[in-house]
From TrEMBL:
<keyword id="KW-0067">ATP-binding</keyword>
<feature type="domain" description="ABC transporter">
    <location>
        <begin position="4"/>
        <end position="243"/>
    </location>
</feature>
<keyword id="KW-0547">Nucleotide-binding</keyword>
<protein>
    <submittedName>
        <fullName>Simple sugar transport system ATP-binding protein</fullName>
    </submittedName>
</protein>
<dbReference type="GO" id="GO:0005524">
    <property type="term" value="F:ATP binding"/>
</dbReference>
<dbReference type="InterPro" id="IPR003439">
    <property type="entry name" value="ABC_transporter-like_ATP-bd"/>
</dbReference>
<dbReference type="InterPro" id="IPR027417">
    <property type="entry name" value="P-loop_NTPase"/>
</dbReference>
<dbReference type="GO" id="GO:0016887">
    <property type="term" value="F:ATP hydrolysis activity"/>
</dbReference>
<keyword id="KW-0813">Transport</keyword>
<dbReference type="Pfam" id="PF00005">
    <property type="entry name" value="ABC_tran"/>
</dbReference>
<dbReference type="InterPro" id="IPR050107">
    <property type="entry name" value="ABC_carbohydrate_import_ATPase"/>
</dbReference>
<dbReference type="InterPro" id="IPR003593">
    <property type="entry name" value="AAA+_ATPase"/>
</dbReference>
<keyword id="KW-0762">Sugar transport</keyword>
């Protein structure tokens, strides 16, 4: 059974049709690349899955069960986490503090509870070890590389034991070495049975880590193919419209 099913998802903003009848199924531990030109509908689709937007039509199912998200917190309660392009990290805080931001561990009784820093450092260290990242819990985020920042954002998704992680252009503005680090983080999520939707313009990244690629063009799905059954040239043609559908 698919962990996530989108059935005929549509979205319009007034007279503008942003998405038109999109159907995608995502299996446990599967990495799906979501590609398309600017304005293709990728971000709108991800925001619907994440609970930021309500679809104008269609149905979302999690583990075969119909769901309806009115707020992002409801998507998180159903095991969906998002790593946005800007990562939404606080530069002046440590890695551990960012991982637990808004979900801090406290100790004590009643109104006298205080933050349990040691517990947060320990758990953050475990998460970074699971992800095989060199990021350290006490390091300040402002001193980190792009790859380490991604590790912090991904560790935050593991804190809630997410089943589905949506990643928006995670390798857009980092060095070649850091790209390899982030792709390895995605592989770690896959190894742990997490399903990943990877929005990316970078063809080598998609063909390196994804099992399937879904291509959107002008709000319509024009391809949904195993990586082994397509090529960068075909995907480029589908994105630009040189190839109508595959």
């Amino acid at each position: 059974m698919a962990i996530l099913e989108l059935n005929q998802i549509s979205k319009h903003f007034g007279a503008i049709q942003a998405l038109n009848g999109i159907s995608i199924a995502l299996e446990e531990g599967e990495v799906v690349g979501l590609m398309g030109d600017n304005g293709a509908g990728k971000s709108t689709l991800v925001k619907i899955i994440a609970g930021n937007f309500h679809p104008s039509g269609g149905e979302i199912r999690i583990g075969g069960r119909p769901v309806q998200f009115n707020r992002p917190v409801e998507a998180r309660e159903n095991g969906i986490e998002v790593v946005y392009q800007d990562l939404a990290l606080c530069d002046n805080l440590t890695a551990a503090a960012n991982v637990f931001l808004g979900r801090e561990v406290r100790k004590g009784f009643g109104p006298l509870k205080i933050l349990d820093y040691n517990a947060m450092y320990r758990r953050a260290a475990e998460l970074f070890k699971e992800l095989k990242s060199e990021t350290r819990p006490r390091d300040l985020v402002r001193q980190m590389s792009g790859g380490q920042r991604q590790a912090v954002a991904i560790a935050r998704t593991r804190l809630s034991d997410a089943k589905i992680v949506l990643m928006d252009e995670p390798t857009a503005a980092i060095s070649v070495r850091q790209v390899a680090e982030v792709l390895n983080l995605i592989r770690r999520l896959k190894d742990q049975g997490v399903a990943v939707v990877l929005i990316s313009h970078r063809m080598p990244d998609v063909f390196s880590v994804c099992d399937r690629v879904v291509v959107l063009r002008r709000g319509t799905k024009v391809a949904d193919k195993p990586i082994a059954a397509t090529s960068p040239e075909e995907v480029t043609g589908l994105i630009t419209g040189a190839i109508q559908e595959a």
